[in-house]
Amino acid sequence: MSTLSSERHPTTALPAFVLGALDVDDAVAVGQHVVACTRCRADVGAFVQSIALTPRAGHVSALPRPEVKRRLMARIAADQAAAPDPAPRQGMAARLWRRVRLAAAAVLASGRLLIQRWRDDSRDERPDALR
Asked: Can you give the pTM of this predicted structure?
């Protein structure tokens, strides 16, 4: 317990002692001091009470009371009912996709017309023997 031996009262180690986070040697030394010291024993008692009042994740006391949960769920349902329907977004996406397809078809058709015209122009420039 080299880190605790220099202190008259192991006040900085008491929370770790209560939580069981000290190694065995330190826990034994702090425990022996707490048994003999009323001041540190009172501090340990205060830490124990604080921890008992603190909700822990997954612990039953960490869950909301039924009335709080009911009000929260009702508010969520009301917010969802007031929210706009997501269907217009789907309609907007469909319209956008249709426009993209039409634009792509127009580009392809224009390209085909240009290629056809280029072929026709190049045929006109050929000598009569190659036609």
From this structure: 0.40
